[in-house]
Amino acid sequence: xxxxxxxxxxxxxxxxxxxxxxxxxxxxxxxxxxxxxxxxxxxxxxxxxxxxxxxxxxxxxxxxxxxxxxxxxxxxxxxxxxxxxxxxxxxxxxxxx
Length: 97
Prior knowledge:
Shape: elongated
Order of helices and strands: HEEEEE
CATH class: Mainly Beta
Distance between the termini: 59 Å
CATH architecture: Beta Barrel
Strand content: 35-45%
Strand order of the largest sheet: 1-2-3-5-4
Radius of gyration: 18 Å
Structural class: alpha+beta
């Protein structure tokens, strides 16, 4: 390809884009704290449900992790959760009744 940029420039530009994208994720996740969502339970490990809300696409977006408080929940169920925090790309939620 004519006028192709060096690998160093390509890598620097990719990092700039990744940083801007991550800043947007953090901003969006902060805005979700305190909001209630319905979430689809994909899996359960110990006392945590790993879920997806309507805006979390598999293999693209983060997940929502919900502490089940010893409630009996099964994969495939929908639950209501309130976002209480986040960690990088993932939301942390609490189970609602």
